[in-house]
Amino acid sequence: MRPDFQVGLRQNRGAWILATLGSAFLLALVLRQVDLDVLQDTLAQCSTTLIALSIALLCLEGVFASLRLHLFASIPRRVMPPIEAAFRVNAWYVLAIALLPARLGEVAGAILMHRILNMRGGHAAMAIFSQRLFDLAVLAGLVLPVAGIAVLYSTLGSMIVSAFGAALIGGALLVLALSWILLMRPDVLLTPILAFAHRACLFRGRLQRVFQMLLQARSWSRHHYPQMNQRGAVLTTLGKWLANILGLWALIAAFGIERDAPVLWVVAVFYNFLLAVPIPTLGSIGLSEIGLAALLTLIGVPVASAAAISVVARVVLLLLPVLYGGLTWVGLVVLRKVPPTSLPRS
What is the largest CA-CA distance in the chain? Predict the structure, then answer.
């Protein structure tokens, strides 16, 4: 059954208009800085090998995401759904995230999980929220501190043993520990956070919805998460983000930026944050371009070159969902034609 992507268009016209205007405005700011000669030089100098490696790694990220979705979809039903269905859902979901306005991609994901994986609406929404929580724990709590420590070591050198460097490393290690606890036992961190917020009356008005979502997340972590393959959920999340960061690192390094690998690693991490920020844009188009151009400018890349690199990177990322969806469709067709193997009788 094909998902109805017109739901967001019919019910969220204001979101579509605001997202389109936001993307057009931000993208225009970047395109104004693009020089055609610099753009041609950028295309001529970029490494096709690293571009191909980046696409392969980002497609591998999709495989890990599909495997994780398969695990999360099995929680409320206690029966593992067909893994082919999880790959179908993720292929459509990647396309929705790349093209729909902010947060409507998640709505489309819930619809897909409901229609293809036969999940109830509440369970589908909680599965998406829980995966976002895992992504935040890995990206902000594991990847970013490691990248920060690497940059400190490469830039400060012997000063890393100073009190300032030791404090930063200690803070990074604390964040690493808390993020690992969030991955393995989410309720251990959510319970004190909710208790403090409730006593301090922090969740009022519009924040009441956030409070309700966190309550549901704690309930999920207590009742559903222990019933699933927790190690598989953590490993697929780590594999997903390792492939993602390496893929974006290869994409940025393909343009011949002469900077150390840890610096490009940090740029890739912050670029990921820009791709996920829920600001009204069409698939973060415009926002990520102006953000990547600003990051590259901060590390010494000329403005015209930074703008050209951000535009070319967006073109690659726009082609990726279509390529990944096509590869998924071909793979599923091939699997249907392969006869199932039977175990030899003893």
Answer: 71
SS3 label, residue 324: helix
Q: H or E element: which one contains 115? A: helix 104-116
Q: 101 pairs with which residues across the strands?
A: 282
Structure tokens at 48: 């096709």
H-helix or E-strand spanning residue 44: helix 36-45
The position carrying tokens 């893929």 is: 247
Report pLDDT digits (tens) over 293-346. Answer: 988 998 888 999 999 999 999 889 888 988 998 888 888 888 777 765 544 443
Give the number of C-alpha atoms closer than 13 A to the C-alpha of residue 274, restricted to the C-beta side. Answer: 22
Evaluate whether 268 touches 299 at the Cβ level (below 8 Å). Answer: no
Model pLDDT for residues 121-150, shown as the tens digit of each residue = 777 878 888 888 888 888 877 777 777 777
Distances (CA, A) of 328 to 23, 109, 232, 333: 29, 17, 22, 9
Tell me, what amino acid is at 36? L
Nearest to 239 by CA among 103, 10, 34, 67: 67
Which amino acid, one-letter code, is at 29? L
Angle between helices 287-298 and 13-31 (to 10 degrees): 30
pTM of the shown model: 0.81
The dihedral region occupied by 250, where left means phi > 0, alpha psi between -120 and 50, and beta the remainder, is alpha
Ordered by start, the domain boundaries in the chain are: 12-156+230-335
